[in-house]
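Title: Comparing notes on inverse folding

I've been comparing how different people in this forum approach sequence design from structure. To keep things fair, I'm posting one structure and asking everyone to reply with a full sequence. Here's the target:
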């Protein structure tokens, strides 16, 4: 791996919707929520800081058109990747009735030149969601999906109305169900609001008195606290999303001209590497024992997944020992056959189906899988051929290209580790082999002037002979070396990237790895 992947930037994108649904994202209490004026009646601007550096801006508006309220929010920022700017933007909108009932929504996410779009329409208690990946005429749509719309769930205007019912008195609490499709499509995100005391906050060049409002988001991966500060009219002054190991992502109230000028691309990737100060011979290593821990203030170490390669022991709140060892590929070559869907466990079958990024039903992906297989019918040999094909066919890309779907990688044939991972998973599924992707860390002897470090990485797992087998097309390995440390195994749900983000971002920059034994 010559360069760190775009995985970290994508995890950051996955967390940005939390800022858009933060408490008091738009002001003011003085507005008559039952009869707001026609036209745009809220237009808030905020500067975005990552750590101590200004990274971008946010703009949020409410507009009344007849009896509908249209909310819009744009988050635009850049983060640095080895002195190269990665441009990120998230544009969301919702259409709601005056009393806060959701009618429709849209979400467009861009990272450099790669775009994903999501839109939904709510009718008769159902929400129909359409998604696409890619830009303009090259966008590739996924089949529409329909879910029960979570009863009572709120979006921007409904949340605005709900907040205005709260008294800004210390100790006041409220429970809210929020529908944020970028996080979950089929369920509401549970949120609690607690009004705190008065604090002094820095707004521009001066300190002002503000009221702290704490929001807690409950997800499948745990609870996440996000404080904000408002004035007496609920006008937002500051919102913060803490990344303990890197520095908080903060939004500070501003005017339009100030918000849109003088920002750079603060380095986001270098602080995330983990130095081990011990050289590892990746080819010779068969089994490595590690101690993984988190440092400083912040969340405990999240549960480490058990996979075919890794098992954990001596698990404590902030540390665990981890054994990672090569899998028995000799026996796989002798015994693995392609199982039919009926022969697979119910928990494995979903990993044969297409998803937004592993879109194995794309005719171009299906044709590529056929070419890569070259008629091979034996399971292990087929997987090896697919891996070698992806390694060979994906050309190294420039640093300004974002996270792509299998369909785009199939056509463009360029990408970093994430593109290798999703394309290989899609080719395997297209040939009848369950596959998924893993996020974690991998050892590199040298990166950005540092020797012997672990960096964030993504690779593939395929299901053979009743077990998940790790393979890494980006590192040219069908038999993965034991420097692959899995932190999260992504499900086949569209929310899996968001779930991985919420699990990993609180510990990025705080991880410590000790190499205890190499065999």
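Reply #1:
Here's my take.
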């Amino acid at each position: 791996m010559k360069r760190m992947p775009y995985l970290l930037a994508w995890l950051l994108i996955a967390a940005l919707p939390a800022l858009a649904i933060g408490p008091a994202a738009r002001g003011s209490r003085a507005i008559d929520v039952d009869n707001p004026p026609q036209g745009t009646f809220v237009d808030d601007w905020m500067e975005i800081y990552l750590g101590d550096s200004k990274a971008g801006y946010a703009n949020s508006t409410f507009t009344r058109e007849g009896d509908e309220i249209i909310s819009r929010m744009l988050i635009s920022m850049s983060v640095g990747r080895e002195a190269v700017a990665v441009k990120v933007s998230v544009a969301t909108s919702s259409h709601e009735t005056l009393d806060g009932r959701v009618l429709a929504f849209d979400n467009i996410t861009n990272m450099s030149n790669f775009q994903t779009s999501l839109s939904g329409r709510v009718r008769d208690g159902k929400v129909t969601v359409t998604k696409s990946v890619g830009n303009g005429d090259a966008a590739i749509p996924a089949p529409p999906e329909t879910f029960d719309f979570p009863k009572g769930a709120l979006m921007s205007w409904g949340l605005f109305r709900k907040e205005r019912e709260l008294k800004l008195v210390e100790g006041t609490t409220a429970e809210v169900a929020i529908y944020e499709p970028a996080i979950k499509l089929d369920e509401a995100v549970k949120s609690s609001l607690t009004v705190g005391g008065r604090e002094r906050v820095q707004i521009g060049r001066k300190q002002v008195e503000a009221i702290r409002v704490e929001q807690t988001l409950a997800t499948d991966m745990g609870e996440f606290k996000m404080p904000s500060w408002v004035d007496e009219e609920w006008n937002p002054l500051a919102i913060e999303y803490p990344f303990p190991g890197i520095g908080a992502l903060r939004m500070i109230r501003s005017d339009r001209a100030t918000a849109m000028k003088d920002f750079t691309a603060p380095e986001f990737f270098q602080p995330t590497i983990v130095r081990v100060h011990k050289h590892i011979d990746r080819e010779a290593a068969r089994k490595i024992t590690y101690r993984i821990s988190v440092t400083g203030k912040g969340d405990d170490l999240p549960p480490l997944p058990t996979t075919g390669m890794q098992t954990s022991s001596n698990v404590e709140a902030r540390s665990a020992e981890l054994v990672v060892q090569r899998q028995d590929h000799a026996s796989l070559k002798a015994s693995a056959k392609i199982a039919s869907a009926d022969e697979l466990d119910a928990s494995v079958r979903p990993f044969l189906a297409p998803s937004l990024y592993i879109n194995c039903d794309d005719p171009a992906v299906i044709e590529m899988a056929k070419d890569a297989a070259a008629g091979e019918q034996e399971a292990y040999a087929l997987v090896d051929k697919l891996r070698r094909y992806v390694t060979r066919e994906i050309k190294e890309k420039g640093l300004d290209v974002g996270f792509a779907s299998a369909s785009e990688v199939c056509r463009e044939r360029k990408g970093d580790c994430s593109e290798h991972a999703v394309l290989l998973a899609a080719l395997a599924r297209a040939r009848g082999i369950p596959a998924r992707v893993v996020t974690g860390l991998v050892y590199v002897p040298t990166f950005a002037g540092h020797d012997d470090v672990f960096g964030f990485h993504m690779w593939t797992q395929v299901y053979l002979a009743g077990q998940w087998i790790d393979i890494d097309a980006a590192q040219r390995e069908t038999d993965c070396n034991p420097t692959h440390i899995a932190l999260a195994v992504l499900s086949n749900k569209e929310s899996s990237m968001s779930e991985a983000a919420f699990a990993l971002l609180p510990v990025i920059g705080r991880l410590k790895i000790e190499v205890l034994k190499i065999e």
